[in-house]
Amino acid sequence: MSGKKRDRSRVTRRQVLATAGKGALAGTALLAGSSLWTRAARAAEEVNVLAFGGYEEPGMLEPFEQSTGIKVNLKIHDGSDEEMVALIASSPPGTFDIITPTSAYIPRAVQDGLLMELDPSDYALDDYFDLIAKWPPVWTDGKMYAIVNRFGYYGITYNHNKYSESDVSSYSVLWEERAKGRVALFDWFLPNMGCLSKYNGNATPYDLSDEQFGKLESTLMGLRPQVGLVGNTSQVIQAMAGGSYDLAIAGEWVQAGMYDDGLPFKALVPQEGGVTWDQAVCIAANTPRPDTARKFLQYVTGPEFQARLAVARTYYSMVPNKKAAAMLPQDKRELLNLADLDKFTDVFMANLSPRKDPANRGAWLDAWERFKNA
Fold first, then answer.
1. Per-residue confidence band for 85, with pLDDT thresholds at 50, 70 and 90
2. 266 with 329, same domain?
3. How many other CB atoms are there within 10 angstroms of residue 210's CB atom?
4. For residue 273, is pLDDT > 90?
5. Taking the model in full, what pTM does it have?
6. Does 116 score more than 90 pLDDT?
7. What does each C-alpha distance from 331 to 264, 302, 374 come to in angstroms?
8. What is the DSSP letter of 70?
9. In what order do the strands lie in the sheet with 183-186?
10. Same domain assignment for residues 142 and 161
């Protein structure tokens, strides 16, 4: 193999053929067994990961590979969470050992038998904010199937040269005359409609009665004249950075990077509350490498990796591991609402609701499509 010295001690094919009778059979069996063992060992020393952006950046995975000798075969996914989960279902075992979908998709994946049950004692959950360690979507019937290692919120991201913190203390700012045509939205129905549901006063924004959902549809359609852009992540960020838009239903994952680049954007959770986003790391039920996958999961839920991921160039994120938060420079902790860890859960997270896949998902999607096409 390229770059490696030839192993002079191994049995060659010519030597095996030169051996007669029983010795030949034994030698052949030995060689075959050795070959199978070598292939199995090589497979055990790698892990196939399907992840959203950030994992590919320099310094993210090299420490894991160097300390364990395990090679990470990484594929960055730029599609939807649904597509990511579907790839596990449709791919041969071992194609992807690890995936990182939004936790809202975990319950359905568990029901479909796609994810391996995890042993909580294998992971340093005591280092986590208790709220995230017990995050409801990753648990089913008291069993854990994923661990959140990256999260944040959707509220309002705003141009602070044009709006004060007081101005954006309520989602009602989105309907003001000066905001007409200056609002940008990401093309994803769950966070946008979830925040508007909170604006309507729904404490559990994704569990709505028919009457509450009808009101949400009206609220959504009423916002349409204010919205100048519905686009993907890069389109919205570039348009806001260029000065075309002043307001977005978004959070630190958009704002923090722009703020660090000297652009005049801040973000907050309005008084009505907001919804969370997250990525939860899980192991495919059909992986042939459970032990290797477990080691990878331990690494990406640990403080060193999470501290790097928090300030990834792709986008910033808050971290569930308190030790990771403590490792961040103070300016980054302030930017990511992690300056006071003792108040983080009781104060900051208190008005946020977990993003959830609603039971009437089709109706939500239809409403979103009507909104975009209006």
1. very high
2. no
3. 9
4. yes
5. 0.78
6. yes
7. 16, 21, 42
8. P
9. 227-231, 183-186, 247-248, 156-159, 265-268
10. no
Give the Cα separation of 310 and 322 in Å (integer): 12
Structure tokens at 225: 């004249």
**CA–CA separation, 136 and 332 (whole Å):** 28
Answer yes or no: is pLDDT of 371 > 70: yes
User: Does residue 156 have a pLDDT over 70?
Assistant: yes
In which element (H, E) is residue 306 found? helix 303-310
Asked if residues 70 and 319 have their Cβ atoms less than 8 Å apart, the reply is: no
1 is a domain residue:
no
**Cα–Cα distance list, 18 to 10, 23, 25, 32 (Å):** 15, 10, 11, 16
CA nearest 277: which of 139, 128, 108, 101? 101
Q: How many CB atoms lie within 10 A of CB 218?
A: 12
Q: What pLDDT is attached to residue 55?
A: 97
Domain boundaries, position 361:
153-275+355-373
Q: How far apart are CA 251 and CA 268, in angstroms?
A: 7
Q: Token pair 């570039």 is at which residue?
A: 238
Computed on alpha carbons and rounded to an integer, the radius of gyration of the chain in Å comes to 25
Q: Is the pLDDT of residue 357 over 90?
A: no
> What is the pLDDT, as a whole number, of residue 307?
96
Nearest to 280 by CA among 140, 137, 128, 122: 137
pLDDT > 50? residue 19: no
Number of separate domains in the chain: 3
